[in-house]
Amino acid sequence: MADDLCSFTKDVFITKAPKKSPLVLRMIVLVFAMVCGVYICSICVKQISTHSKAGFLNIPVIQKACPEPNIEPWEIPYVHYPKPKTYSRAECACNPVRYFAILSMQRSGSGWFETLLNNHTNVSSNGEIFSVKVRRSNISTIVETLDKIYNLDWLSSASKNECTAAVGLKWMLNQGLMQHHTEIVEYFNTRGVSIIFLFRRNLLRRMISVLANLYDRDAKLLNGTHKSHVHSPHEAEILAKYKPTINATLLIPNLKQVEETTATALEYFNSTRHIILFYEDVVKNRTKLVDVQDFLKVPHRELKSRQVKIHKGSLSQQVENWDDLKKVIKGTQYESFLQADYRK
Fold it and tell me: Where are the membrane-spanning stretches (predicted)?
């Protein structure tokens, strides 16, 4: 009986022992999987941490401040470092840029003058941008357009892009400038924009040029194409053949009106940093262009233009009713306009 009991007990132990073995193996496999998981996670965390640090290290390089320029204290408001949205200035990011605007009137030599400026390697003058009415419809559209120009995001044939040292535009007095003069003066002074005034001394020559240009808009004398400016003597000769007839009765009042508009513009923008030029002076004395380059703080260059003057020589050959005009002007403050005051 005792032997049977012992035999039974042994059988019990012998049959239970194999059931414990799979449990232990499962535990070992589970522990091994957990260790592997922890190891893999730790590697991933280290990699993420490494990328994050690399990303943070790049930020100071991008936002690195440009060194202070060696300039007079009064110049500081007129030195800028624009950051265009449409491209990178790359190695020229720390090249300072001056902002300017050429304020003038139609047929005052501003087109010729602007081609001279754009002949400079580091100057970009973007043309008569506000001739498009929608851009000057209100002060908001004007400011939006100016911001785009001075941020170097206005792309035109004149754009020098990355290494521009002076950027601006040509702006006629009758293109929203006088109507919004208060806000524009504030903008110019706040943004550090310098003004180049360009006018004509001989307003009679300007009047003849205005009338001839208006005639050609309809007549289109150059093979059915209207051109305000030409680049060949032949084209200039064709356009110069037209001689306008000027209303002698309204001549003096019209000349006075132009003078008053010029004086008003100078008064409105007197608080800005500016320089005043006259077309005749630039034609006769090219050192005036050196003065302009000094004003814009750009290196001196010899500036050239391909434009050819249309109306040359004596005024008596450029207007149809010359005798009538001469009678009206003689003895007035405008008598000097009858003389040839420059050559080109």
Answer: 23-40
